[in-house]
Design goal:
Elements lengths: L2 E6 L5 H13 L3 E6 L5 E3 L5 E3 L2 E2 L10 E4 L5 H7 L1 H13 L2 E5 L3 H6 L7 E2 L13 E2 L4 E4 L2 E4 L5 H13 L1 H10 L4
Parallel strand pairs: 1-2, 1-6, 2-5, 6-7, 7-11, 8-9
Antiparallel strand pairs: 3-4, 10-11
């Protein structure tokens, strides 16, 4: 079974995180929500609280095929400041596992030097924080094992592209049809 961990930090963008969780689960991909804080409950940037399945320290990341970083503020900053997140994201990227980042979260990858020479998408206001990457103004970009997207308005595209990368185009098309996404 394909396994994905979505990392949630206080201040995460709810639509970006939950769209990924919802659509990947519809595609029968196991998705674990992981709090990087000390509590299972994580507070979204727009006042929606989510209870995760796991705390960061409880997860064996070696079992996962992909990791996803939602954007939002201060969620992205909280992801950047978490040493464990930095190590896991670097390990995934360097070992060829899928790393997804949307909105402001590609700045986490940039700060770790993981997008140098790669094509990426990100939220317009953080473009100046991206070092060494080619920023492409399209909804989703896949460059090797890195999948990036621009923001809330591209969350469905992002989730469907993750499904394509992990489970194939046919599965992504079937999910898009099931949710009447055109």
């Amino acid at each position: 079974m394909i396994k994905v961990n979505v990392l949630l930090a206080d201040g995460f963008e709810e639509i970006e995180a939950l769209t990924v969780v919802d659509l990947l689960r519809r595609a029968q991909i196991y998705v674990g929500t992981v709090s990087i804080g000390e509590d299972y409950q994580v507070h979204g940037s727009h006042g929606i609280n989510v209870t995760t399945e796991d705390l960061f320290e409880e997860v064996d990341f070696e079992e996962a095929d992909a990791i996803v970083l939602p954007g939002g503020m201060p969620g992205t900053t909280n992801l950047k400041e978490h040493e464990g997140v930095r190590k896991v994201v670097t390990h995934f990227a360097e070992s060829g596992k899928v790393v997804g980042a949307i909105c402001a979260a590609p700045t986490v990858l940039s700060e770790l030097g993981l997008v140098k020479g790669k094509r990426i998408a990100c939220y317009p206001s953080v473009e100046s924080e991206i070092q060494g990457a080619v920023i492409v103004k399209v909804p989703v970009v896949v460059d090797g094992n890195i999948v990036t997207s621009r923001g809330v308005g591209t969350a469905i595209d992002f989730a469907l592209e993750l499904i394509t990368v992990l489970a194939g185009k046919e599965k992504a098309v079937s999910i898009a049809e099931a949710i009447v996404y055109e």
